[in-house]
Design a protein that fits this description.
The chain is α/β, with parallel strands linked by helices. The chain has a single domain, classed as P-loop containing nucleotide triphosphate hydrolases (Rossmann fold, 3-Layer(aba) Sandwich). Helix content is 28%, strand content 16%. It contains seven helices and seven strands, in the order E-H-E-E-H-E-H-E-E-H-H-E-H-H. It has a seven-stranded mixed beta sheet, with helices on both faces. Helix 3 links the parallel strand 4 and strand 5. The protein is globular. It starts with 11 loop residues before the first strand and ends with a helix. Bound molecules: guanosine-5'-triphosphate and magnesium ion (MG). Guanosine-5'-triphosphate binds next to helix 1.
Length: 263
């Protein structure tokens, strides 16, 4: 029997959503490439494949710009987890999650997991330091080697205006408090018709991160990966019970494998 884990077919999909400039692409670069590097404003979407133990997880980066809004629900289709991202120095970016992005998740899995992430924590808190392994390695639940993957870029455009500049040593005003985030998370659960008591607690699912320093970035992604494992196992079980061709599973429009393996 072929080793499915070597086929790089995504078992599950995680999607990053949020306003432009909040740092979605930077978070993904930090996690996958262990770097904070210059970004270009995302057009359309791009995905990375992350091997997590025996499973393959596709992590989708989406465009926050208004003009690409229509694509969001397409990227969320079948998602097992959605990372709703805002910028802690920008109140409007939190408001946009509720006003513009939450409804895009209607196409996600019924048991989709939501994380609310306030990025750029380094701008408001000088104590926010690197929290990941000094050697830049991620934890692997099976202890296997981390696989370096290339982003599957669907499209890109020239550099956008950067976010508010952080001059060295200058601490910016934190516009979004943890309490603001916790109460938004509770409203998200209500929007989804989920019972607070039987859902993952807000405290566990609201993160503050810094793509710049790496603060909390591994914790964010790896908490989610662990939480989506039951969804992977359930899907594999369902596929065994009633095997069907699922075009959603193919890795999306950017997947060469999807095209080459269709017949
Ligand atoms: N200080 C600081 N700057 C950040 C951080 N994350 C991202 N930035 C900066 O914020 C700007 C936007 O980052 P991106 O990662 O491109 O933002 P995005 O959410 O992907 O934006 P779109 O692709 O347009 O939706 C860039 O200038 C980044 O360098 C962070 O954690 N701290
Ligand atoms: Mg981007």
């Amino acid at each position: 029997m072929p080793d499915l884990s070597k086929m790089k077919k995504p078992d599950v999909k995680v999607v990053l959503l949020g306003d432009m400039n909040v740092g979605k692409t930077s978070l993904l670069h930090r996690y996958m490439e262990r770097k904070f590097k210059d970004t270009v404003s995302t057009v359309g979407g791009a995905f990375f494949l992350k091997q997590w133990g025996p499973y393959n997880i596709s992590i989708w980066d989406t465009a926050g710009r208004e003009q690409f809004h229509g694509l969001g629900s397409m990227y969320c289709r079948g998602a097992a987890a959605v990372i709703l991202t805002y910028d802690v120095t920008n109140w409007q970016s939190l408001a946009e999650i509720e006003e513009r992005f939450l409804s895009l998740t209607d196409t996600a899995n019924h048991d989709c997991i939501y994380a609310l992430v306030g990025n750029k924590a380094d701008l408001t808190d000088p104590k926010v330091h690197l929290s990941q392994d000094a050697d830049g390695q991620t934890k692997d639940p099976t202890g296997g080697d981390e696989e370096r993957t290339e982003p599957q870029v669907l499209s890109a455009v020239p550099t956008p205006p950067a976010s508010p500049t952080s001059f060295s040593g200058l601490v910016l005003h934190k516009q979004v408090t943890r309490d603001d985030a916790l109460s938004l998370y509770e409203r998200i659960l209500r929007y989804k018709g989920l019972d607070e008591k039987s859902s993952l607690p807000a405290d566990k699912m609201c993160f503050e991160t810094s793509a710049k320093t790496g603060y909390n970035v591994d914790v964010l992604f790896e908490t989610l990966f662990d939480l989506v494992l039951p969804s992977i196992l359930r899907k594999r079980h369902e596929n065994r019970e009633s095997p069907t061709v699922d075009l959603e599973d193919s890795g999306g429009v950017g997947s060469k494998r999807a095209r080459s393996s269709c017949c």
